[in-house]
User: Fold Deoxyribonuclease from Candidatus Brocadia fulgida.
Amino acid sequence: MIIDTHAHLDFPDYKADLESVLSRAKEADIGCIINVGTSLASSKKSVTLANRFPPVYASIGIHPHDASKVSDQDWQALESLVNEPKVIAVGETGLDYYRNRSPHDDQQRIFHKHLILAKRHNLPVIIHCRDASDDCLKILDEHKNGLLKGVVHCFSGTAEVVKKYLELGLYVSFAGPITFSNANSLREVAKSVPVERLLLETDCPFLSPQQKRGERNEPAYLSFIIPVLASIYGLSVSDIQRITTFNAHILFGIGETEYEGKIAYAIRNSLYVNLTNRCSNMCAFCMRETYPIVKGHHLGLKKEPTTEEVINAIGDPGSYNEIVFCGYGEPTERLDVLIAVAQFLKSKGKRIRLDTNGHGDLINGRSIIQELKGLIDTICISLNAETAEKYEEICKPVFGKRAYPALIQFIKDAKQTIPNVQVSIVDVPGVNVEKCEGIARELGVDFRVRNYNVLG
Ligand code: SF4
Assistant:
């Protein structure tokens, strides 16, 4: 299911064929559409549409263009809509100094009112900002607290500006312009938005994607935007659909998402296997306990799966390039299941990777590397620090001082036994990347720096 988080289906453009537009959206797997009000009348129509069509939800707001025309009665009428059951956001609101259709003072005053309304009702805010990012950020900064949440829609600014919106905890969405042939710089900016903060939108009837330029836009045309985002992020189309749907669900509370931990889950063309949530580390950067989500997959297991359950969850592994034992937990905590599943996968001729913290010997009380020989093609071991002291500080291993020397020995053993060995660190402050790279070089294995918070 896909979610279009910004549409204007109440506009006259859809008067003649709205039902056909919605039917094409359904065929394109658009399961929810947020219809965004731009005036009091448009907000009322959004609520009417939402009540009439199950996939449609309403956001209520007054566009900055009309800020100077908002009377007290208008505002009271808008506020009264907020309790309608399918109203799930406030906006679009913000600042537009490009068209300057209302004086800046009026725009800012009405923007403040929207933010207060949204926070009072614990709703996300849908923000429009054009040529006004300094003032927009200043106002948002005044309202920042645990209750400010929302999305900057149809972002078209710089990487520096988007960073500030992200620091405020906001989501970002890109509409059709991201597909334009001359939009290389916008696509570069999009790379700096973590996919966990990305939302999809069409802003229809405006901003049709490249393939439909000059035509009326509609929700089904997300199908032109998603492949471009997939290419920007180096992910698959289904990854972008799943992740953005999850993000929209978290922000707006609409759509469906899974809350049950997955045993096997796909990212790009790899299948990941989640054997356990147990781990002999408690890394400072690990979200295992608090937010076990990776690329829109929920990995919090209710119970550890048996070998049979893992094989059933994998299904036909034929189409995947690689099977990865990973998940939110240390796979060698379940060495017997890992080996049995790896044997099954090898019988199918699959390439297998193991992502591990390198504590397998300590966990199992014996050297385990020979048991992995011939099964694991690639092993990625988290080094995470240049010294035992730093490792203890960052990873808080249950094995205490024994952990780091055992990890180094495991890397040496892996180098002798497994075809491809890579060590990695996470770029948290205080880790000496050069020294870690030097250790990898000395051990004769590959080295990779992983971005903090980029998982999967
Ligand atoms: S080793 Fe991996 S799973 Fe274990 S605590 Fe660290 S980041 Fe989390």
